[in-house]
Write a structure and sequence with these properties.
Number of helices: 11
Helix content: 40-55%
Strand content: 15-25%
Strand order of the largest sheet: 1-2-3-5-4-6-7-8-9
Radius of gyration: 19 Å
Structural class: alpha/beta
Shape: globular
Largest sheet: 9 strands, mixed
């Protein structure tokens, strides 16, 4: 059921009582969930946002893909223009909600998921639970439990500079992040860009709140789900420094740990890609983690179209 009435204002941080600039809200378990659908054709490409990010953050890719297939962006409950729920949530809850909103909105399977960071975990869980509904996946630097033990540790020699970095961030964080969001969304229409930036500046802590989900319980859900189904999979690794880390992290720490961490990511994501027969690992040398889809949009569009064509070729045989 589509809900056209204006969303009631909720006294929770980051909730939005304004009408969304795009899309419609659907009733899922008594909550409004925002979803926007463009284009036509199968499979349906579904973007699953990173922690703290929302559907319209992927508008650049969403619009391009809609020219050759059905494309969907949405806001998880507790984020964006969807209704408030307490965060973080389990992968079971998130994938149930995603399946329900797709069904309610009449968006047909099979789905080709584009999961960014935390969204990549949810994409994998969905594929484990409902393999017959998934035509393929593109994972943009998904979390992995190996990072819990192999990530470079913060050393004492970085402490003084990190203290200055944190102090500067406390004094100027809104200005710094506004500049970064303006760069990230430079090609977005003015009315959408301003709404997005205002939302993100008001909800910077939401990224940290959703990331609390990156713990043993979440990875245990993936373990219990078993192996990924035999579907086409492309895993992307961004080798550049994430620009959204620079306001809050010591420059020397970022610079000195870039290569070691990239080596770890290369190993982890190669293993993930090789976990299915049709897996592929692709490297993006000039992309950051948060901005991977705005740093290298053409590479992502090409990968999505490749999997769309793979699906079409498979169904025509």
């Amino acid at each position: 059921m589509i809900i056209h009435t204006k969303k009631q204002q909720v006294d929770k941080p980051g909730s939005l009582d304004s009408e969304p600039p795009m899309g419609s809200c659907y009733n899922v378990e008594g909550r409004r969930v925002l979803l926007d659908r463009l284009g036509s054709g199968s499979p349906t490409v579904v973007f699953i946002p990173a922690a703290g990010m929302i559907g319209l953050d992927y508008l650049n890719i969403h619009q391009k893909i809609s020219q050759c297939a059905t494309s969907v962006i949405y806001d998880r409950s507790g984020t964006g223009w969807s209704d408030y729920v307490k965060l973080p949530r389990s992968a079971l809850e998130v994938t149930d909600e995603l399946r329900n909103v797709l069904n309610t909105a009449g968006v047909p399977a099979p789905y080709l998921f584009v999961g960014h960071s935390l969204g990549g975990i949810y994409a994998q869980q969905y594929a484990q639970r409902f393999p017959d509904e998934v035509a393929g996946m593109i994972l943009l630097e998904p979390p992995h439990e190996d990072f819990l033990t192999n990530t470079p540790k913060f050393k004492k020699r970085y402490l003084l500079q990190q203290c200055f970095t944190i102090l500067r961030a406390l004094l100027t964080y809104k200005k710094s992040f506004r500049i970064l969001f303006n760069q990230m969304f430079a090609s977005w229409p003015d009315e959408i860009r301003e709404s997005l930036i205002d939302y993100h500046l008001k909800t910077l802590s939401k990224t940290l709140t959703e990331r609390k989900n990156l713990n043993s319980e979440l990875y245990e859900e993936i373990h219990k789900g078993g192996n990924l189904p035999d579907i086409p999979l492309i895993v992307f690794t961004a080798m550049g420094i994430d620009p959204f880390m620079t306001p809050i992290t010591s420059e020397s720490f970022l610079r000195d740990t870039l290569d070691p961490f990239n080596n770890i990511k290369h190993t982890v994501y190669t293993k993930l890609a090789n976990s299915v027969p049709r897996g592929e690992h692709r490297i993006l040398n000039n992309a950051g983690h948060t901005t991977i889809h705005t740093d290298c949009p053409d590479e992502l569009v090409e990968a999505i179209r490749h999997l769309i064509n793979t699906h079409e070729e498979g169904t025509s045989e």
